Structure formats: C-alpha cells, structure tokens
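anyone else get weird line breaks when pasting these?? whatever heres mine. first is seq + tokens for prot A
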Amino acid sequence: MTASPVPAGPAQGPAAIPTLAGFREIAPRHDLILCDVWGVLHDGTVGHSAAGEALIRFRGLAPEGRPRRVVLVSNAPRPWPGVQAILDGYGVPREAYDAILTSGDLTRDLVARHPGARVHHLGPERDAPIFEGLDLTLVPAAEAQVVVCTGLFDDTRETADDYRDTLAAFRARAVPMICANPDLVVERDKKLIPCAGLIAAAYAEIGGDVVYAGKPYRPIYEAALAAAGALDGLPAPDPSRVLAVGDALRTDIAGASAFGIASLLVARGIHAEELGVLAEHDRLGDAAAWLARQSVHPDALIERLAW
C-alpha cells in the first residue's frame, strides 16, 4: 500500500512565468479546468465571488468541438456532497462547476478494497461521513487492521508531534495508513492550519506504510478527466487542453506537472507570505526569486482567480 510522492516534471524557468491580469487571458486555450477549492473558491471563512464568476464565464465560452467544463478537485477528506454543502454555504454558485471530486471519494474507493476490515479513524468526527455505507467496522486504535487519517483531532492547537506515541504503536504492528488529505496545511481565517498530510509524513518517517488519496497523486487526475468525459459521453479531454488551478505548489502545481497538464498558481492562498501578498493592498511584485527556489513552477501566476 506504499505510495511515493509524484515526481516533479520538467521545471519551467521562473522568468518565463507570466502574471495574469485576469483569467480571460488564457481561458480560451482550455476545454477543462481542474479547480482547487480551498484557497481558490474560499479561504475557510469567506467565499471568493470573483472566482465563481470567472468559472461561470469560462463555462459560457462558445465551445470549439466540446463544451467547456469545470471539475472541482479537492483534497477534502469527505465525500463530494459534503464539499458542495460547504460551497453552498459560502455562496459559491453551482453554475460555476460541473462536478466535484475529492480525496475523500478516492479514500472510500481504497477502503472498499478491504471489505469487512477493522478500521480506525484518526481524525475529527466531522469527517465521519467518509465511512458511511462501507463494509467495515470502526474500532479503537489497538484493534485496527487499517488506519484512515483524515486530519488532527484538534487542528487549532495540536501538531503531528502530539501523535508520536500513537504512530509508533501503529508502526509496531505494521498497520497501513490511508491518508485522506495529502495537504500539509490549509489556510483558514488568514492562518495556516495543519492537515492529515503532516501526520502521514510523520508516519512515513518512522517506516509506516502510507498510501495517499488526492493531489498530487496521479489517480485523482485520471478520475477527474474520466468524470469530465462522462459528463458529455465523450472520451477524456486532451491533456493539452486541460488546466489545473490551485494555490499550493506541493499538491496543485506538482501534481499537474507530473500528470502533464498546465497549471495556474493563485497567489493569495497558502503561499501568500512567500509571494508578498499578505495585506489586502499588496500587489504581486517580482515573484521570480521565490519561485526560482522551488522544484516545480506553474505555467502562469494570478493574484486571485478572477476574469
């Protein structure tokens, strides 16, 4: 069940990365947008209306051979209807997208490969819907055959270090872990909050067997393209006409690069500090110096997703 991180594709020179004034500059080049959710459509407290409007306008472009589609691809550790409910609450219009695919959906598929398994849920109760309807028994940590990590029990005060003893006990019994959210951190109310990926990384460091569901790993991109094709009864779109939009280099940009599709980095997300756009009045300056130190680079940069 071990999965290695997606290797970075060929790096594009940072000097070649354009900064867009608006998404309209590149939208006509693409038939499918694989759009991140957290950090692009909302920040965990507020929805970004301009982002939703940009996706609506993209979907409304006159088609050239096939309709323009948007699939939201999220590392949320819950099935897609839960993400849609959150988006509804933030006022993100359903007209902005055609489908939602989450790491929670892929986690359910992975768990389903172990029918009747004794599973320990390492994560908050709010993520419990990830197990609904599956053939499994939820058990305490000491009885687990598989552990599914969806996050920290209290991500406002805990760190991965708080789980050191728990992880050591799993490792002693060679219990495999499914990480339902490969993100290390996520932005919430202008703060970076730890995610399940930190616990999974800590487990892997001590020799634990970890498989990751979601970005930057290839299966979620394959599933997203297949879902887009199924919307119109067509083959999956040509990767050269697909664009990944996100705010995280490690997941959104690295995953797109490895899969062979173009990417657009949203600056006002988890990399806002590095890119110098923490305050509302800040504007993107020369991001090349920071991007040059990274192992992967987006094809374009935009302050916020907006038309």
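and prot B, same format (seq, then tokens)
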Amino acid sequence: MSMVEDGTGRGNDAVDEPGWEVDPDDESGAAVVAAVGRQIKTWREAAGLRVGELGSLLGYGEDLVYKVEGGRRIPRPEFMDAVDVAVGAGGKLAAMKPDLAEVRYPKKIRELAKLEAAAVELSAYGNHNIHGLLQSEEYARALFEMRRPAFPHDDVERLVAARVARQSIFSRSSAPELSFVQEEVTLRRHLGGRMVWRRQLEHLLEVSELRHVEIQVMPTSRDEHAGMGGEMQVLKFKDGSAVGRSEGDFGSRPVSDPKHLRIIELRCGIIRAQALNPRESRAFIEQLLGET
C-alpha cells in the first residue's frame, strides 16, 4: 500500500473512518475497547496480515487500524463486520458489536440509560429544553451543535446517537408510565430553525398518542408555579426504590433519600396539577403546529 504525503500511512484510496474517541475518564469503557482491540490484532496476526494490508482490505486507513487495535478508537459496527470477514473470525469479532454499542456513549449517559431502562415510572418537568426522551433526532442534533464551546463533529454524532438510543424506553414490552410537563417556552423556541421546530412538535404529538405517555404543557400565563426552581425528574423502580433530581436542590445531584424524594415528588405532583391536562396540552401543541 502506498503512503500518502502526510505520512499517516493511509492508502490513496482508503477511507479514514473516524469511529468514536475513547473517554480517558471512562475506565470500564476503555477496558472494553482495549479488549476488542487486542482480539482484532490477534485475529489479524493469525490471518498473516500486516496492519497496512488489513487496512487496504477494509478500505480504511492504516492509522485507524492501529488506533482500534491499540484501544484508542471505538470502531463503528460496519468496521467490526468488515474486519470479521477479512480475518476469517467467523462472526466472533462481529459478536462484540453490542459491547461496543454501549461503551461508545459517554459514561454519564450510559448510567442514566440504565436507570431509565429499569424504571417502572418516570415523572419529569422541563423548563429550558424539551426533555431528552421527547426530542426528535434533528432537535437533539441542533441542541448539541449550538453548544459553546463547540463540540467536535464526532462528539455531536456520538451524543445524538446516545440520546436517540435512550428512546427505546417507549417500545419496551413492559413499558413504564411516563409523565412529562414542558414549559410553554420550550415549545415556542425555534431551536434549529422552523423546520426542525415543526418536526419536533409533530414528534411530540406522535409520542403523546402512546397509552403509557402523558405530555402536559405549563402555560407561561400561570400565576402559580411550583417549578420555578428549575427542571426535575423522579424515576421509580419495581422494588419500590426511587431516585430523583431537582435543579438547584441537594447539590443538583441524584438523590434517593426518602425525605429528599418526597420534596421532589411533591413539586412534580403540584406542577402536573397546575399545567394543562394531557388533552388540553395536545390541543395546544396542535395549535402551535398550525401556526407554522
């Protein structure tokens, strides 16, 4: 394989597939990626292939293969499929895709997704952005792209993929009861532009049709509002335990102490009572959509 002028070792017709960067602070995730990398290297050497030869067969850059084998880059699913065939692993490398699919997301998001996956009930109030579980892919991407300092492109795609993956909660066989209250301003703000905003409103209407989901709107005109402290959320589990978080309270950290949870649950209950009911809220969203 010929060398390109920048000395990276990529072939002229090879593609330097970016994959995902490994979070150095995510020790468990980094260990998984390193283990996969060692397996790829072992299979490559057993097949009698040099790094450059494998890269040429895959159509990817030699530099990427080095990074993947060294545990410094999380390979994408299509890479794992291709390398499995190239080294004759018989599906053993491709079988590692589920492990990589989990660790490619930031550790904090993985922990949140696990809690959501185990929950039997979720109550949330959002006053700034639309709740992550309710966001369309386009809306989520717009949010991450407008962050400052700006996220690198790969980080944006990684975060969007993680947010969309969390939404599998809606299609679980034993779906939890989900209750969301959104501040009116979160529905009126045209984040991402008019078309992204319109698609987000349509997405809310689609989700609101699910029997186990309730979406309510808190009108800006309300004289009484129990949620002025900021966003909050409570997750309840099958064993009777729960975890909650309230912005500005208890250090804004997740809490499971019954005394703290009672305060957050009380506020969530009052907020639901003060907001438009689900039917009124749906009509409100339809009205906003009609105004586009």
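btw re prot B: The CA atoms of residues 205 and 282 lie 7 Å apart. The first strand starts at residue 20 and ends at 21.
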